[in-house]
Amino acid sequence: MNERAQASETRESGGFRVDIISVFPSMVEAALAEGVVGRARARGLIDVRVCDLRMFTDDRHRVVDDVPYGGGPGMVMKPEPLFRAVEAIAAERGQPSAVVLMTPQGRRFTHVEAARLSALERLIVICGRYEGVDERVAEALVTDELSIGDYVLTGGELPALVVVDAVARLRPGVVGDEASVMHDSFVRGLLDHPHYTRPAVFRGMAVPGVLISGHHAEIERWRRDQRLRRTRQRRPDLLDHATLTSEEQTDLEALRAVNKESDHESD
Ligand code: 9D3
User: Fold this and answer.
1) Which tens digits make up the pLDDT trace of 43-67?
2) pLDDT on residue 207
């Protein structure tokens, strides 16, 4: 790439391009037009495009699936349109750093995966449909197979949107407040504290007094305590890998000590 193209790319997309291949492009496009991601696209911070897989068929009926070899229920995504789509995108937009396939057979998508993908320049994300894609696509085209969790969906479009959303917000400038990105629960390994806004009393439910007190040190202490309590209560698994400040470490030990006492009482 020449210097001008490089400069223009940096100006236009922050050097981050994603192409999503789908048989439901309008569904994917609709979600990408809204919110933080929609704004980042409009501002040219990220370049996300949706590719209609049917554009890469060569028959009158634009068929993208076929019956499985060996029999069995459902249909399989044909290899030809997927290979042509990835090759066309690579030719137009440059060699992808990763070709991601969204599939229930993939590794679990986590914050660690999001951080890894956000450091790449060009991604292609393939949305699986039907029973899955021809295995030769996974073997010869795809670099990463990802799942978003252990529940059955009807296709890879929503998972692809989950991945692009999580990755895009880690790119510089996409989320206004960089500090808030750093403090996210899965970065630090702690859940967030509760949030309140006006009115101070709503249908008889009052906002905790400390938040209205204006004592910033006490507010910080309350929030820290709430983060620790909630994580311990709802997601104790996160505490095993959390990066805690020394104050949080002390507080957590205090919480555990209090809990031990009450354990003895109920003996
Ligand atoms: C009923 C079909 N199943 C037979 C054992 C397999 C199956 C194939 C395709 C189940 C779901 C799907 C569609 N899902 C995805 O493509 C998908 C997905 C998901 O369902 N859950 C979590 N992450 C993902 S990523 C792609």
Assistant:
1) 999 999 999 999 999 999 999 999 9
2) 98
Out of 101, 103, 150, give the residue to mutate to test ligand 1, the one with the largest number of ligand atoms within 8 Å of its CB: 103
pLDDT computed for residue 266 by the predictor: 43
187 pLDDT tier (thresholds 50, 70, 90) = confident
The C-alpha atoms of residue 252 and residue 241 are separated, in whole angstroms, by 14
For the stretch 50-88, what's the b/e string if a residue is b when 16 or more beta carbons lie within 10 angstroms of its beta carbon? bbbbeebbeeeeeebbeeeeeeeeeebbbbebbbebbee
How many C-beta neighbours within 10 Å does residue 140 have? 12
Q: How far is the CA of 78 from the centre of ligand 1 (A)?
A: 17
Catalytic (active site) residue 131: yes
Residues whose CB falls within 8 Å of the CB of residue 258, separated by 6 or more in sequence, listed in order: none
How far apart (Å, rounded) are the C-alpha atoms in residues 179 and 156? 31
pLDDT at 263: 59
**Ligand 1 centre from 103 Cα, in Å?**
6
Q: Is the pLDDT of residue 7 over 90?
A: no
